[in-house]
Amino acid sequence: MSLLFALFALASCLGAVAVVVSQSVVRMAFWLIVSLGSVAGLFFLCDADFVGAAQLLIYVGGTLVLLVFGVMLTASGPYLKIETSPAQTIVAGLVGLLFLFMVVATVSEVDWSGTKDRILSAGGHYKSASQLADARFDDASEGNTLRPLGLALLGVRTDLPGAPGYLLPFEIASVHLLVVLVGAAYLARAKRRRDTV
Amino acid sequence: MVSRLNQILLVGVADVAHAAGDSPWQPGLSEYLLVGAILFVCGVICMATKRNAIGVLMGVELVLNGANVNFVAFSKYSAWGLDSQLFSLFVIVLAAAEAAVALAIALNFYNNHLSIDIDRANKLKG
Lengths: 197, 126
What we know:
The complex is a heterodimer of chains A (197) and B (126). Chain A is mainly alpha-helical and 197 residues long. Helices cover 70% and strands 0% of the residues of chain A. Chain A contains eight helices and no strands. Chain A has helices spanning 2-21, 25-45, 49-74, 86-109, 112-122, 129-134, 146-153, 167-187. In chain A, helix 2 packs antiparallel against helix 3 (49-74). The N and C termini of chain A lie far apart (56 Å). The mean pLDDT of chain A is 82. Helix content of chain B is 76%, strand content 0%. Chain B contains five helices and no strands. The termini of chain B are far apart. Classes of the chains: A mainly alpha (197), B mainly alpha (126). The interface between A and B is large, with 95 and 83 residues.
């Protein structure tokens, strides 16, 4: 478990760093595949099997193929590599290290277990730690999270009766996807190339 | 603060130390949050430094994945149960939609300018 976590965490972080460092767009796409696939492995380690599968299907199978198609349609001749100057790279690295230090320092300052206890004692959806333990979604015979997630998207919470369902966001997301489909097809339609500028 | 930072950054050392003992080290919430922070920072640097429009898009994907790692880690290690996983599902769907529209805009820009160097997108500059 800890060995798998170390493997996936190292692969995702190194893949992200390689995306930043590499100059060619195709290599960036490859390292992005490595990074996002390892993040899907982290999701599986967190008992989120459906989210991990969706990550693999939608990100690695859909979005990255879309990005690679974009690379193939736009990268032509001298614009395949657009270099940044070394001074800019050094400044970006320093600013990134400072930013990482700030984020990690902020996250490490928060007392996460105390926050969890306060949420439980304040009586949110979970009234107590024992109810949280009862609501674990680990019935492996039905898949760990598939059935509760699907029912929650239809507005029924089987893992936690009384908690809000997600029917309205689900419908909004479906209409949003339709609008995006029409809008993307309209924006990327074939038309005559303007040769000025 | 620095001591707690060291405590997080020296997780690997603790792993080796615990491997010799009887209680094996298990990844907790802070390790997942560290991975999420690294993904987020890499995405922000990618968005800021790449001059290729598709590189900027990849930076956005990295940022959204950092947020997703945090959501799923909170789902397991904190008092949010399935709600975090539902949020991360919506994040994945919206990221796919955003990538489609942004790619259409990039193709349109390429049709007009014959390059995808975003430094040349300066027509709105006064």
